[in-house]
TrEMBL record:
NCBIfam families (alphabetical): PRK07327.1
Signal peptide: none
Protein name: Enoyl-CoA hydratase/isomerase family protein
InterPro entries: ClpP/crotonase-like_dom_sf, Enoyl-CoA_hydra/iso, Enoyl-CoA_hydra_C
Organism for this UniProt entry: Amycolatopsis halotolerans
Family: Belongs to the enoyl-CoA hydratase/isomerase family.
SUPFAM superfamilies linked to this entry: ClpP/crotonase
Lineage, highest ranks first: Bacteria, Bacillati, Actinomycetota, Actinomycetes, Pseudonocardiales
Family matches, as Pfam families: ECH_1
Length: 268
């Protein structure tokens, strides 16, 4: 692929299943495609490659095995301030690049999508979810601000009332319910998710590329104009990484118990 997409060691797979179609697969199925810290930078660079890849006209992104992507692997060590800032910068570049890319992006949500995974799924131009896929915004459950996409995309997709309910509570959504409220484009039986995504991708790859790209550029102005909201939420999330609530959430996960957030405990 002419030197493109050479950033990792197998945790993200890139292939060309059809003329003009690029398939990106997050590839840690044994951990439900949860991300190791270096993968944030790797994926940011992959999207930058997509932008300058002349062979690609449409992108499909999915997860290996039974999950789409469940966010950062909680077994990773607690990030240092420097690591948290590096992740924030990688995320800033990823989201701005995804919104700037004029090639259509399709997410094939084959299973659980949480946090970063849900961000990747919803920022695609077309999102196709398994009817029984579990979608969770998730950030507040681990004591951090919903900082990687929620303030940017959720209100535009489902309105502020639904946004605040699902983002503040981190309540689970099925793919079928997500389609009903407009959070995803389509919900189909699990075995049809990737074939349907590739079918749509092949169709778009043979369409008028100028018309498709100009249309996407115009529509994405709704999102690019809101990027300052994303930058604020992302900065607040990074601040939360240094907080007691986040540390308690990670410790509780390791000990397999519900967290007791210090900020929710009344002072005596």
């Amino acid at each position: 692929m002419s030197g493109l997409y050479q950033h990792g060691t197998g945790n993200v797979l890139v292939e060309r299943p059809a003329d003009g179609v690029l398939l990106i697969t997050i590839n840690r199925p044994e951990r439900y495609n949860a991300l190791l810290m270096p993968m944030f930078e790797e994926l940011s660079q992959i999207w930058a490659d997509v932008e300058r890849d002349d062979e690609t006209r449409v992108v499909v992104v999915t997860g290996a095995g039974d999950a789409f992507c469940t966010g950062m692997d909680v077994r990773e060590p607690d990030p240092t301030p420097e690591a948290a800032l590096a992740m924030l910068e990688a995320e800033r570049r990823r989201i701005s690049t995804v919104l700037r890319i004029e090639k259509p992006i399709i997410s094939a949500i084959n299973g659980p999508a949480v946090g970063y995974g849900l961000s990747t799924a919803l920022l695609a131009d077309i999102s196709i979810a398994a009817e029984d896929a579990v979608l969770i915004e998730g950030h507040t459950k681990v004591g951090v601000t919903a900082g990687d996409h929620a303030a940017l995309i959720w209100p535009l997709l489902v309105g502020m009332a639904k946004t605040k309910y699902y983002v503040l509570t981190s309540e689970k959504l099925s793919g079928a319910e997500a389609e009903r409220i407009g959070l995803v484009s389509l919900a189909v039986p699990r075995e049809q998710v990737l074939p349907r995504a590739l079918e749509v991708a092949a169709q778009l790859a043979q369409g008028s590329q100028q018309a498709l790209r100009f249309t996407k550029r115009a529509l994405n102005m709704w999102l690019t104009n809101a990027l300052p909201q994303h930058e604020l939420s992302g900065a607040l999330e990074i601040l939360d990484f240094a907080g007691a609530d986040y540390r308690e959430a990670r410790q509780a996960f390791r000990e397999k118990r519900p967290p007791v957030f210090p900020s929710a405990v009344s002072a005596n």
